[in-house]
Design brief:
Blueprint (H helix, E strand, L loop, with lengths): L2 H11 L6 E5 L5 H8 L3 E6 L5 H8 L4 E4 L7 H4 L5 E6 L5 H10 L6 E7 H7 L8 H9 E9 L12 E8 L9 H11 L7 H5 L6 H10 L13 H11 L1 H4 L7
Parallel strand pairs: 1-2, 1-4, 2-3, 4-5
Antiparallel strand pairs: 5-7, 6-7
Helix pairs in contact: 5-7, 7-8, 8-11
Length: about 250
């Protein structure tokens, strides 16, 4: 309900009049109205059937309103999303799934400006020694930055948690030659137990602890390093050392 926060979201989105913006969870339409006023061609996806009539009444033909789940948009919708941005106050219970869907699956937006729970924003934009699996995933696919903190009092009804707006500018070719999903798979194993040293989490029948320690030291990291202490670049380098044949593949970010 805070117009200052809404204005900051619109400013971060840098909307060009006429461009397509996908909004997930328009709710009562506060952000939707600001997007329309900025000149965006809004495609709004709302899963709550009870909100659909009021949204139709308020916006009519000025937006395209879709009743359904943003995580499973049908082909008729995705075909119209070749060049678009995602701007949304997303439902917090689907935050991780939604980020992964739009970061990794085509068609991907050029930019995402989303409101998330403050703790999630902290994880998305984290740096060592506070990295997490979510940090690695988001920063592999996008340049991530916090836009603003949003206190609970900005909402009606007021939630029990603070929120934050983050901006993710999706990368196109920064990490040529690496398989992002391979990096994420290794990071997932690395974060399996945050208290354990990384070599203990990553050891397998193929890669023994001593091999992993040596790989870490070759990257200028201590053998006792833990997952949260590695940068995204460290994870990429480690993935290439543990799987050199796969690391050599020429896969970019679509």
């Amino acid at each position: 309900m805070d117009e200052t926060i809404v204005a900051k979201i619109i400013e971060a989105a840098e909307i060009v009049p006429g461009e397509t913006v996908l909004e997930v969870g328009p709710g009562t339409g506060v952000l939707t109205q600001a997007l329309v006023d900025a000149g965006a061609r809004v495609i709004a996806v709302e899963a709550d059937k009870s909100l659909i009539p009021a949204l139709h009444e308020r916006f009519g033909d000025s937006i395209e309103l879709i009743e359904g789940d943003a995580l499973s948009l049908n082909d008729s919708v995705t075909q119209r999303l070749s060049h678009y941005k995602l701007v949304a106050n997303i439902p917090y219970n689907i935050t991780s799934d939604l980020l992964r869907r739009f970061l990794t699956s085509d068609p991907r937006p050029s930019r995402m400006v989303v409101m998330v729970q403050k703790e999630v924003a902290d994880r998305i934009t984290a740096v060592p020694p506070n990295m997490s699996l979510l940090s690695v995933m988001c920063q592999l696919y996008a340049k991530c930055q916090r836009v603003t903190k949003v206190p609970a009092g900005a909402f009606r009804p007021m939630p029990k948690v603070d929120s934050a707006v983050v901006r993710l500018d999706l990368l196109e070719s920064l990490f040529w030659g690496i398989d992002q999903e391979e990096v994420i798979a290794i990071a997932k194993r690395g974060f399996a137990s945050r208290r354990k040293q990384l070599h203990g989490n990553l050891k397998t029948s193929i890669h023994r602890s001593e091999q992993i320690k040596h790989a870490l030291e070759s990257l200028g990291l201590p053998a006792s390093a833990r997952a949260q202490e590695l940068t995204v670049e460290n994870w990429i380098q480690l993935a290439n050392k543990l799987n050199p044949s796969r690391g050599a593949k020429r896969r970019g970010i679509a």
